[in-house]
Write a structure and sequence with these properties.
The chain has 457 residues and is α/β, with parallel strands linked by helices. Helix content is 43%, strand content 14%. The chain has a 6-stranded parallel β-sheet, with helices on both faces. Strand 5, helix 6 and strand 6 form a beta-alpha-beta unit. Helix 11 runs antiparallel to helix 12. The protein binds nicotinamide-adenine-dinucleotide and uridine-5'-diphosphate-glucuronic acid. Nicotinamide-adenine-dinucleotide binds next to helix 5.
Length: 457
């Protein structure tokens, strides 16, 4: 009774929300989301989804049990589907050749072999994970090494959603990119994938290309976004030396329509599971092809990010009289950005560890990410206090550092917080989130990013 059967291998941040939206928008398709993690699959079947995304539960509930199913039976899902999205993790390799840079494709290859093993009918295999350019070739080599003569077409359909806005990004994408071989069978498979998205995405936003361009565009899009942040962060350091305000500079620069205003917010550094890994991957690929200068160019985006994180923590220590031994310091936010519980590569992890190395007692508050903070900082419990309530986190603290731009921090009772702290009270705003003048009036010594500090001494 379903017109297409779609499987998605990998039920993570990308696989889960993407398939939920496809299922909601296309009741005529059956969508099976499978994963090796039983715990994750079980959570997808409850009200307590394994990831937090605004609006996601409603989307899942609209389709779950109707045409959206979560299961650990990967083989059955492969067998019954004509279209298979692969959305497994592709982290940076930690061992052997290319360690610290190249993508670790072991999960990817395992899935390719599983697809080959289980398939008895034609399949369109879609790269949803972010992969090095030319991975489709490897996928094809594995899939075509079959004596069974089952036809496979490999399509690249990278995902551009951002965490915290995943549902909106999926419902109203800037563009959907679908790359294929430009052979008759490749083009036919490409059209099948276009047809899925055309159920809700206007055709002018569905972009098609050759398979290599699609693979590479994903790495390049992330590299460009991260580059903008590193660019403005480099300027934030200069603003602090020259009494310029990075907020005013980014507004002035961003109003040039050729430059654009988005992704120009100076911060304590970019985090998230992908920017760093994808740039490392881009650097590795450039090196692989002997392109030293392009490799060094993109590597500098990451160096600037590390500089921004370490500069922030050095400033905290310096301003708090060059010692923070035994001082309570509250980190407001631990997620790598607002509206997510995800803490992967969050600058807060680095900052917390550095503060603990200096023997501070670090109190962390976050509305969604405390469970992950506990995991990230396992082994540091002695100097760590994880608290739901920001007022509790700040009580008795010498300093507060804003790590994540949660809107709720803006509407806190900052006078009450000030009163409960040790004096002088320091506030380091790693996101330029708060009203600095007002905090200064209350009594705080305030250190915005890329702006002169407001100090009482
Ligand atoms: P994730 O770690 O949240 O999810 C990956 C899932 O794959 C896990 O649940 C894991 O158990 C499962 N898995 C691994 N090997 C498997 C196997 N052999 N069989 C079945 N399941 C298996 O990762 P993610 O954040 O969803 O990212 C997935 C891919 O999408 C990555 O390549 C990433 O770069 C890319 N991406 C991520 C985002 C994002 O916002 N997180 C956005 C765009 C693209
Ligand atoms: C990013 C991209 O925006 C997505 O298009 C892409 O699909 C995804 O990576 C991926 O491939 O995983 P995400 O990491 O979820 O999405 O979040 P972003 O909104 O891009 O933020 C990344 C980091 O940059 C966060 O730490 C954020 O706080 C920081 N940031 C962002 C800044 O410091 N300044 C800005 O102006 C914007």
């Amino acid at each position: 009774m379903f017109s297409k059967r779609i499987a998605c291998i990998g039920a993570g941040y990308v696989g889960g929300p993407t398939m939920a939206v496809i299922a909601m928008k296309c009741p005529q398709y059956k969508v099976n989301v499978v994963d090796i993690s039983e715990a994750r699959i079980r959570a997808w079947q409850t009200e307590n989804l394994p990831i937090y995304e605004p609006g996601l539960l409603d989307v899942v509930k609209a389709a779950r049990g109707r045409n959206l199913f979560f299961s650990i039976d990967i083989r059955a899902a492969i067998r019954e589907s004509e279209i298979i999205f692969v959305s497994v993790n592709t982290p940076t390799k930690t061992f052997g050749e290319g360690a610290g840079k190249a993508a670790d494709l072991q999960y990817w290859e395992k899935v390719a072999r599983e697809i080959l093993h289980e398939s008895t009918s034609a399949k369109i295999v879609i790269e949803k994970s972010t992969l090095p350019v030319k991975t489709a070739q490897t996928m094809e080599n594995i899939l075509n090494a079959n004596g069974k003569k089952v036809p496979f077409e490999v399509i690249s359909n990278p995902e551009f959603l951002a965490e915290g806005t995943a549902v909106k990004d999926l419902l109203e994408p800037d563009r959907v990119l679908i790359g294929s071989r430009e052979t008759p069978t490749g083009l036919k498979a490409r059209q099948e994938v276009v047809d899925i998205y055309a159920n809700w995405v206007p055709l002018e936003r569905i972009l098609t290309s050759n398979v290599w361009s699609a693979e590479l565009s994903k790495l390049v899009a992330n590299a460009f976004l991260a580059q903008r942040i590193s660019s403005i962060n480099s300027i934030s350091a200069l603003c602090e030396k020259t009494d310029a305000s990075v907020l005013e500079v980014s507004r002035a620069v961003g109003m040039d329509s050729r430059i654009g205003s988005r992704f120009l917010n100076a911060s304590v550094g970019f985090g998230g599971s992908c920017f760093k890994k994808d740039i490392l991957n881009l650097v590795y690929i450039c090196e692989y092809y002997g392109l030293e200068e392009p490799a060094r160019y993109w590597e500098s985006v990451l160096r600037m990010n590390e500089y921004q994180e370490s500069r922030f923590v050095r400033k905290m220590i310096r301003e708090m009289f060059n010692t923070i031994v035994g001082k309570r310091i509250a980190l407001f936010g631990f997620a790598f950005k607002a509206d997510t519980s995800d803490t992967r590569e969050s600058p807060a992890i680095y900052i917390a560890r550095k503060l603990m190395e200096e023997k501070a007692c670090v109190a962390i508050t976050d509305p969604k990410a405390l469970e992950n903070a506990r995991i990230d900082l396992a082994g540091c419990e002695e100097n760590l206090d994880l608290v739901e309530d920001p007022y509790e986190a700040a009580r008795g603290a010498h300093g507060i550092a804003v790590m994540t731009e949660w809107a709720l921090y803006r509407s806190l009772d900052w006078e009450k917080i000030y009163k409960s702290m040790e004096k002088p009270a320091f506030l380091f705003d790693g996101r330029n989130l708060l009203d600095h003048e007002r905090l200064f009036e209350i009594g705080f010594n305030v250190y915005p990013l890329g702006k002169s500090p407001l100090k009482h001494f």
